[in-house]
Design goal:
- This protein is of the alpha/beta class and 304 residues long.
- The chain folds into 2 domains: 7-83 and 272-289, Rossmann fold (3-Layer(aba) Sandwich), CATH 3.40.50.720; 84-264, Rossmann fold.
- The chain has 8 helices and 10 strands.
- The chain has helices at 64-67, 84-102, 105-113, 138-147, 176-181, 202-207, 225-233, 274-289; strands at 36-39, 55-58, 78-79, 130-134, 153-158, 167-171, 185-188, 212-216, 237-242, 262-264.
- A 7-stranded parallel sheet has the order 6-5-4-7-8-9-10. A 3-stranded parallel sheet has the order 1-2-3, covered by helices on one side.
- Helix 2 packs across helix 4 (138-147).
- The longest helix is centred in the N-terminal third of the chain and has 19 residues, at 84-102.
- It is elongated, with a radius of gyration of 21 Å.
- The two termini are 23 Å apart.
Length: 304
């Protein structure tokens, strides 16, 4: 079963003597004939109406939308989508925005509008600039690799110690303050769990050095938007790039739209490629049906 809006992808991509696909909102189907669900955010309680499910396949890197459902069938394997293309797109996005800020491109854009020809020294050389990555899983490690050629000082924080080339690892709650104190740029790619929800709050921002810059490409639930705006308005933070928000689409009345120090994008840092997603779904189903072990199954207790 596929989520709404996937008919344009061509269900012929699933043509197989072994299995067929139906669209959740477009095809007639019998709930007791559905063995696999692939999607993003099914309505709460929907999955429990499919009594013969064998596995649930997320079409995004995160699975928090599934686990928020109190009736999610937790005995089933929940598989997260791991795609090198998506990870590299997110790394490109992060590297682009760090370099735009680091090289003062917004300042030069402003000068262009005023026809001002004025050169400025960089605030810091890249070798003296510290980039911290919250979350050192597959995506975090890919982001770190993309930044290595620019000679930044790289660090990362995660629940457990990680060995990522060129990255100083911090782990656990006790080391979070030390990690934050060394971030001129702080990038969030954490999974959204009970332990990470709201982690980017007033106390978090206060521990960052004055003038630090924040980038969130993980989930809107990680960041308290009111606290971010207060930290920017006080001058403690110099800017932010947000690709995810507490409410999506971002409401018209949100002050984020007009805040001069916040760059907004509509959850596009990494977009699931339809062809890669179809291959992933077919691979998962084939593995399950042939008795092979599914890859990238999440631990519901951890949330990733």
């Amino acid at each position: 079963m596929l989520p709404p809006g996937w008919d344009a992808l061509g269900r012929s991509g699933f043509a197989s003597p072994v299995f067929d696909a139906v669209l959740a909102d477009g095809d007639a189907y019998k709930p007791d004939e559905i063995n696999y669900f692939a999607g993003f955010r099914p309505p709460p309680g929907f999955l429990k109406t499919l009594p013969r499910l064998k596995a649930v396949l997320s079409l995004g890197a995160g699975v928090d939308a599934f686990l928020r459902d109190p009736e999610f069938p937790r005995h089933l394997p929940l598989v997260r989508f791991v795609d090198p293309t998506l990870m590299h797109e997110m790394a490109q996005y992060v590297a682009m925005h760090i370099l735009i800020a680091h090289r003062d491109q917004r300042l030069y854009d402003s000068q262009k509008r005023g026809r001002q020809w004025r050169q400025h020294m960089l605030a810091r050389a890249s070798r003296d600039t510290r980039v911290g990555i919250l979350g050192l899983g597959d995506i975090g490690a890919t982001i770190a690799a993309s930044l290595l050629p620019f000679d930044f000082q790289l660090s990362g924080w995660s629940r457990s110690r990680k060995m990522v080339p060129g990255v100083k690892s911090f782990a656990g709650p006790s080391e979070l303050p030390q990690f934050l104190a060394g971030c001129d740029y702080c990038v969030c790619v954490l999974p959204l769990t009970a332990g990470t929800r709201g982690i980017m709050n007033a106390g978090f921002f206060a521990r960052l050095p004055k003038g630090a810059f924040v980038i969130n490409v993980a989930r809107g639930g990680h960041l308290i938007e009111e606290d971010l705006i207060a930290a920017l308005d006080s001058g403690h933070l110099s800017g932010a790039v947000l690709d995810v928000f507490q409410t999506e689409p971002l409401p018209d009345e949100s002050p984020i739209w007009t805040h001069p120090k916040i760059t907004v994008t509509p959850h596009i840092a990494g977009i699931t490629d339809p062809k890669a997603a179809l291959i992933y779904v077919a691979d998962c189903v084939t593995r399950c049906e042939s008795g092979k072990t599914l890859e990238n199954v999440i631990d519901p207790a951890k949330g990733y």
